[in-house]
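Z., the sequence and structure:
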Amino acid sequence: MTSTLKDKTAVVTGAGTGIGLAIAKRFAAEGAHVFITGRRKEVLDDAVAEIGGSVQAIRADSSNLADLDALYRAVEERGKGLDVVVANSGGGTVAPLGEITEEQVDGTFATNVKGVVFTVQKALPLLNENASIIITGSTTSTRVAPGMSIYAATKAAVRNFARTWALDLKGKGVRVNVLSPGPTRTPGLLGLAEPAAQQAMLDMFEADVPLGRIGDPSEIAGAALFLASPDASFVNGVEFFVDGGQAQV
């Protein structure tokens, strides 16, 4: 690894497993001090051990504003400000119209929309010059699938957050971008199907991707590193698809 993020401070929410964990691991390997969050302490403990390097875990639910306050108090106490924010916490369930519940709507929007808003807004006073804000989106923002309407709506919302926030922060040297993965082998993706049906689901996704395979979390992490780095210093307000071409053709 290089030292692309040497002496930088990053926050990655929802980093106990999957894409968030891969991003935090890559950032730490590139020299950053990384604050990670998640809801389950035991998962965070395992993540810290896997990440290595300079990492600090804060148990936090991104939809809970008091938890976010505790996170940013810890960042402030370190005294180095904040260079990268990855608003990655998210999730959802599959439910076709006619079967959607109020609980599904409230829970998905609380994490994927409200959580993103306040993860970013509460970070603003701590941001250093040339800071990078990265929001995890999804190919569902443009390419929908049956039963995914609520999840897709939340990802379309965060896409428009990046557009508007790039204008709200004009002249402040802060970049805001969306990182939208295609199907990626994570516990969250596998959890969409029962164990006996998981391989069939993966085969379906692979057939839908022009590269003929699904992504690995490390590939999404590489794209996040680019958006966090000086190499992306003139990249702002975009949706950066890392999807093997799925949403492009």
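Helices lie at 18-29, 41-51, 65-78, 102-121, 149-168, 187-190, 198-208, 217-228. The two ends are 33 Å apart (CA to CA).

Let me know what you think.
H.
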